Amino acid sequence: REENAFIEWYPLGYGVGFKVKRRLFETQTDYQRLEIYETEGFGKLLVLDGTVQLVEVGEASYHEPLVHPVMLAHPNPRRVLVIGGGDGGTLREVLRHNTVEKAVMVEIDEGVVEASYLYLDVAKDLLDRLIKKEEPRAELIIGDGVKYLRGSEEKFDVIIVDSTDPVGPAKLLFSEEFYRDAYERLNERGLYITQAGSVYLFTNELLDAYRNMKKVFDRVYYFSFPVIGYASPWSFLVGVKGDIDFTKVDLERAKGLDLQYYDPERHETLFQMPRYVRKLL
Ligand code: AG3
Questions:
Q1: Mean local confidence (pLDDT), 24-38
Q2: Domain of residue 107, CATH code
Q3: I need a labelling partner for 76 at 20 to 30 A (CA). Which of 11, 122, 156, 190 fits?
């Protein structure tokens, strides 16, 4: 046991850890145990139920590949739905696209939004405006994403699921029923993306989610990306509705974004997968 460290333990005793200076905050929200640490080298660390959600230094290595490939593959993403993502990092990246007229973020746990606003430098100003309902292009709804998709008629061009892992409470977000509801909420042409766990350590969860998505979407793509703070490579699944080619992105729109991790000019390199996983998919 390392004293001044936070370690997330994955299956088989695989650990991902950070040296920490101290714990800044700890609470039990209505849904999960939330902790925030000050790390030695990566800024603040947000942990939910013992799993790393982000470190400030490097969080874009997750938020960029989650958001920009689908936003740049869609010809004109005007309405975007984010499910989860209470820290605000995903919505922050979405709003960098000036095609976006309206974005809705449905986060189940108000505690995550509050703690992120108070302690993290990820999307402080955005969360402040959302809480005060002063953000003209975006709305925050505290609620259950599953119920939201069921109960609403609103249509979206892009749906982004920024959830915890496909085990425990978020499991429903990886089910065939949920994918059907999401497909319904997409416009005639639309893209759906979800994070889908560690390629090496959650291979079965990734396969299950992929198979469920295949039953629902017109086409399904998988890609992986190395994320700082997670057991990388990390997997992402994309569901396509209608006539959109996810293998191509708009490089003109990409120019203004000044990305650090996801490289639109090398979009094709996203689709790299360890061979044994590709054979299973
Ligand atoms: N969303 C959670 C990704 C899952 C991390 N899983 C893990 N460490 N076992 C990240 C929230 C950032 N917006």
A1: 97
A2: 3.40.50.150
A3: 122
Q: Does the pLDDT of residue 1 top 60, yes or no? A: no
In terms of domains, do 109 and 242 share one? yes
Kindly report, residue by residue over 96-105, the tens digit of the pLDDT. 999 999 999 9
Q: Give the nearest ligand 1 atom to 66 CA.
A: 13
pLDDT of 168: 76
Own/partner long-range contacts of 91-97 (Cβ < 8 Å, ≥24 apart): 91/123, 91/126, 91/130, 91/138, 92/63, 92/122, 92/123, 92/126, 93/60, 93/63, 93/64, 93/66, 93/67, 93/68, 94/67, 94/138, 94/158, 94/160, 95/126, 95/137, 95/138, 96/257, 97/71, 97/253
Whether residue 85 has its Cβ less than 6 Å from ligand 1? yes
Residue closest via CA to ligand 1's atom 2 equals: 164
Does the beta carbon of 162 lie inside 6 Å of ligand 1? yes
Q: Say what the pLDDT of residue 121 is.
A: 96
Which residues are catalytic, by number? Answer: 162
The boundaries of the domain holding residue 18 are 5-55
| ipTM for the predicted complex | 0.98
Mean pLDDT of the chain: 96
Q: Is the CB of 164 under 6 A from ligand 1?
A: yes
Do 259 and 135 share a structural domain?
yes
CATH number where 30 lies = 2.30.140.10
Q: Please tell me the total count of domains within the chain.
A: 2
Ligand 1 atom nearest 52 alpha carbon: 8
